[in-house]
Amino acid sequence: MSVAESLLLRRAAMAWLDQRPSERVDFGWLSSFEYGGQRIPLMDRQRGIRKPAGMDAALAIRTTFTPPGQVPPYADSVGPDGLQRYKYRGSDPNHPENVALRRAFSSKLPIMWFVGVASGSFEPIYPVWVVGDAPQELEFTLALDHAQRHFGDAGAADPDYRMYMERLTKVRLHQRVFRTQVMLAYESRCAVCNLGHSQLLDAAHIIADGHPDGEPVVPNGLAMCKIHHAAFDSKILGIRPDTLTLHIRQDILDEVDGPMLRHGLQDMHDRPLMKLPRSRSARPDLARLQTRYGEFLSA
């Protein structure tokens, strides 16, 4: 298949993904993609790098879901330039899967990335480009945004530009995956009031993004409706870590206003969280809650 033909297939696959019936996808649905009257699964069940028969370059990559508290099999990370890294398959740079991904790099072909967010469930990230290859580190460099594709050595020396690149990586990958995993853990319900409309819910950080302990992992997250997320971030609402009860700042309790203040905030005071993950490993990290509660008390 020529590069031009491969590009057309990729565009068709991404357009098909745009029409997916739900935000997350699974192996069965990804196996149903058809192009030119032929079924072309977008994911391999066993391989992390997908290269369909008849193609020279990789079409998609996959990252397996790792439950909270467990160590992932491949240590993908953000590099010092703010760009995402993706580890080789094994330790041989010339493994066929690594060669296939390298061909996507040399041909400047976009790929799809399916990031595991639960067992058998994936968040699709696309288009993604391979923009670097480091055999000595056994990893590829990925661009998750058009702006990152043109990040060169000159930009790498600029700390502001590096920070911009890292912010793009967080928005395009880490925060999307974080939100999806938090919503799954809390079954798309607000931890404070149990509101169940996902469009009105956020994945709130306990420790803020950018802090050393502010990783985008489920134990550092809470599903919150937008009003309670804003109250949490504004130190109007706090969560006592030893009892997991809600506390509203005293000046807000003393205020007289309309029904939103009364029922949405004041009535929440001294109540327990209404929703927690079923899995204990996904529940809020108590040390992080203690730090955040200390900030609330000092407000």
UniProtKB/TrEMBL annotation:
Claim: Nuclease is one of the keywords in the record: yes
Nuclease found in the keyword field: yes
Keywords, comma-separated and alphabetical: Endonuclease, Hydrolase, Nuclease
InterPro entries in UniProt: HNH_nuc
A single MF term (Gene Ontology): endonuclease activity
Pfam families xrefs: HNH_2
Domain HNH nuclease: 190-239
Stated name of the protein: HNH endonuclease
